[in-house]
Inverse folding.
């Protein structure tokens, strides 16, 4: 089994990042985590997480009040779900951050 771990910075100031981890057997993803994190108030805060914990691929939206909204991903396999997760967060991270900060200021 091969393991992949890396951090991908989304901004030059390194205040927004993706944390990616995956376990792969051959060409098949058997487990993964993709998490969008923001550096706020002197600490890293997870905002959106895609993972395969609980045995299925899903998306967790983490709110400032500590609540978590879980959304299942209906993909044929974890390879597709992992690809979708990375693309979604690279494209929409600004929207996720704005929503989180807006909730935090309510």
């Amino acid at each position: 089994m091969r393991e992949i771990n890396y951090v991908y910075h989304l901004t030059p100031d390194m205040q927004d990042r993706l944390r990616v981890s995956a376990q792969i057997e051959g060409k098949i993803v058997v487990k993964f985590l993709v998490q969008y994190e923001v550096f706020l108030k002197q600490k890293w805060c997870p905002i959106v997480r895609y993972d395969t914990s609980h045995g299925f691929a899903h998306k967790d939206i983490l709110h400032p009040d500590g609540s978590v909204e879980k959304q299942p991903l209906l993909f044929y396999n974890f390879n597709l779900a992992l690809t979708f997760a990375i693309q979604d967060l690279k494209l929409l991270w600004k929207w996720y951050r704005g929503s989180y900060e807006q909730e935090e200021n309510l």
Observations:
- Residues 78-104 form the longest helix (27 residues).
- The longest strand covers residues 28-40.
- Helices lie at 78-104.
- The radius of gyration is 14 Å.
